[in-house]
């Protein structure tokens, strides 16, 4: 029976931490501890954590702000588990999560595992729409984690577990932002460790955001992909360039309005078909036309913002962070 250490970096999100800890109290497999690492927050969650001392094996730490990557390392250094499990603070964990992980590792032990994210039935319309955009293959979101993925599985830090030996050999995260989880996954694989997707070890990712914030987040993700490619040339795959192609197609289509109206109508037809495809698929998957309509907007933003982020970092590089930890 493995012992797991759950490491959760937090920045000004006490309400999220409360919901996450509450979900962990319902786990059917209980051989785990929880480490809440407050990353220099002004709105701390210490009192929230204290309320769960009698329900969970939970420890609280406060440190100066250094970003998610180095904050996770801080937790790893203090963790007691055989595996270190990382969740984002805005995740809810299904009751059978650790049972699924333990069973999967018993059948096929890997050094690093990851799982998908899903939308819970209780999520609001916007949260469901953004979840669709971030997981649908039509928006390239499906490469984040699901039944099908491209090449070797690269876990993401919203739902990921690593064996203790992985941290001891790699030293954990080496950059604090701009693609820190992608960089870490690549370095893990390059170090010879095995990775695997556990399909049933999913989390409910309760993103509290707006379309404007979602645009900023995806724009940042696009920049981060370019930054990671600086460290590992060749990691920018064709699938990652698809959002850039989408941006160019939108720009090209708009330009035809001036010089070639017939092409503008033709391009508009292709765009309309694509958006209708998102509408039908999202509506069917969520059994809600309202979620489908919101998903059209979210899907467009997911592609356009990511593509613009790629171009932004290529033209005006602001990443290229050294492999140095504070």
From TrEMBL:
Keywords of this entry: Membrane, Transferase, Transmembrane, Transmembrane helix
Glycosyltransferase 2-like domain: residues covered: 5-164
Superkingdom of this protein's organism: Bacteria
GO-annotated molecular function: transferase activity
Record flagged with keyword Transferase: yes
Pfam families named among the record's database cross-references: Glycos_transf_2 (PF00535)
Annotated transmembrane regions: 238-256, 262-280, 292-311
Gene3D superfamilies cross-referenced by the UniProt entry: Spore Coat Polysaccharide Biosynthesis Protein SpsA, Chain A
SUPFAM superfamilies: Nucleotide-diphospho-sugar transferases
Protein name: Glycosyltransferase, catalytic subunit of cellulose synthase and poly-beta-1,6-N-acetylglucosamine synthase
Organism annotation: Roseivirga pacifica
């Amino acid at each position: 029976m493995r012992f797991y250490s759950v490491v959760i970096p937090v920045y000004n999100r006490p309400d999220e931490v409360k919901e996450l800890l509450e979900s962990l109290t319902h786990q059917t497999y209980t051989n785990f501890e929880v480490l809440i690492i407050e990353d220099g927050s002004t709105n701390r969650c210490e009192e929230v954590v204290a309320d769960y001392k009698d329900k969970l094996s939970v420890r609280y730490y406060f440190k100066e702000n250094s970003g998610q990557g180095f904050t996770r390392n801080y937790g790893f250094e203090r963790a007691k588990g055989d595996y270190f499990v990382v969740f984002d603070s805005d995740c809810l964990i299904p009751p059978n999560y650790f049972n699924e992980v333990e069973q999967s590792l018993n059948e096929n032990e890997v050094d690093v595992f990851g799982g998908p994210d899903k939308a819970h039935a209780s999520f609001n319309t916007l949260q469901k729409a953004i979840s669709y955009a971030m997981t649908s293959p039509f928006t390239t979101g499906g490469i984040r984690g699901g039944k099908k993925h491209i090449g070797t599985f690269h876990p993401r830090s919203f739902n990921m577990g690593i064996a203790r030996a992985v941290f001891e050999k790699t030293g954990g995260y080496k950059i604090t932002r701009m693609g820190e989880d992608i960089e870490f996954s690549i370095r893990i694989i390059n170090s010879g460790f095995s990775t695997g997707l556990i399909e049933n070890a999913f989390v409910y990712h309760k993103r509290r955001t707006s379309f404007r914030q979602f645009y900023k987040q995806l724009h940042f993700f696009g920049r981060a992909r370019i930054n990671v490619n600086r460290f590992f040339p060749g990691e920018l795959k064709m699938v990652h360039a698809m959002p850039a192609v989408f941006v160019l197609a939108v720009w090209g289509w708009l330009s035809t309005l001036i010089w070639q109206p017939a092409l503008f109508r033709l391009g508009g037809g292709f765009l309309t078909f694509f958006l209708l495809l998102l509408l039908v698929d999202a509506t069917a998957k969520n059994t809600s036309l309202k979620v489908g309509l919101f998903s059209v907007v979210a899907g467009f933003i997911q592609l356009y913002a990511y593509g613009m982020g790629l171009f932004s970092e290529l033209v005006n590089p602001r990443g290229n962070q050294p492999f140095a930890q504070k």
